[in-house]
Design a protein that fits this description.
The protein is of the alpha/beta class. 21% of the residues lie in helices and 28% in strands. The protein contains 10 helices and 33 strands. The strands form 7 sheets. A 9-stranded mixed β-sheet has the order 14-16-19-22-25-28-31-33-32. Strands 5-4-1-6-11-8-12 form a 7-stranded mixed β-sheet, with helices on both faces. The longest helix is centred in the middle third of the chain and has 12 residues. The protein is globular. The termini are far apart.
Length: 438
Amino acid sequence: MRELPTVIAVVGGEGTRLYPLTLQHPKPLVSMCGLAILSRTFEAMARQGFNEFILAGKGVRNTLFIKEFFKEGSGFSRRIGLKSDANFMYQPKYEDRGNADAVRFCMDFYDIGGDVLVVGGDHILDITLADLIRFHRSKNALVTVGLKELDETEDISPFGVVEMASDGRIKRFVEKPKEGEAPSRTINTGIYVFSPKIREILEGMTGGPMDTGRDIIPFLCSNNYLVYGYICEGYWADVGNPEALLKTTQDVLHGKLSRIKLFVKQTTIDEAPSGKFKRGALRWVHDSTINKIEKLKTPPKIGDYVRIGAHCVIEERVEIDSSSIGDYCKIEEGARINGSIVMDFTNVGRDVKLNNCIVGRYSSIGDRSIIDRDMDVDVHEGSHDLTPVVGEGVVIEEGSVIGPKKRIAPIYESHRILSTGRFLELGYDKNNVYFVEK
């Protein structure tokens, strides 16, 4: 196959659906098993040979935080163990009229004369992209849209939905259809291959919004341009809300994304020198944490599908199953963690129970507290996302009980959260604001 395209990642938006995890940094930098969401996407691409990445950021937070995180690419390459450095470039400050306009600007600015591969900043993928590119070139397409068949049980309304001819050409495109409007169960993944001819067409579209799914694809289809759809085999997920973040983390832990590695040097606790650990599948504990666990008289029970980061203190009588624990965490005696995410620098107190929840960085969960998505209690109507979320820098008092849908953030963030209009305040204590999604 000819040279792989340059990748343009579109990173914009406030990430409000993930509040409170995105109050301190952009959505693409939220941690997933120890690396930023966007790092995980780039990791799966870099392992397929892609090495030129342009980040089309919108807004000061997205642009500056992401530039500081990825820099020129050498740190990213070391973190995932690449033999040669990936190259990262950035969109200069430009008030674009939508993600397609951002792509056009980057193609012009960097004078890209070949195809480009466009991806979203809050998607996780493990797809053989060479097949998509080969299909695009075989059709001499202007644009090829990466597609996925959505299961009948999943809500189709947040997605763009396509109707295709037998040869893959897109006949109709409906963005975020209302009930009964979707022409199929085939959705847009936000992965696009653009041919260089798109530059001229986009440059001629002046004055209006230029969102790829809402504006550009329908325009191209209605004007008889060669727009094709390709159903991608492999893994793809939009991780824009807590439930999706938790589910995708579980999929990573369960080995469903073959190109994503939990550590550069994969170390399973079955390899620990003392042999104290029960054998099991897909358990990774950083060497520095294993060294601390080895000194305990009674080791913790670490089940299958667990990742524990560096320099963690895991005390006796702790039980961890199917969870991701970040770096520099302290899990005190008797704590039980199941199906959850605990991010860096978090302390989990004695006899705490965490079940199917997310705890942000630098938080403290007081002794004997319970955070449980599956708790049998009345829940607020509205959002179907049941995942409880503790934000960054939150202090939960001992003996607290937090059930499904509850979200907690430091009290000084209350105005910012509630001013979005997306959330309903439940109350306050001296440290925190408690809220749910409407």
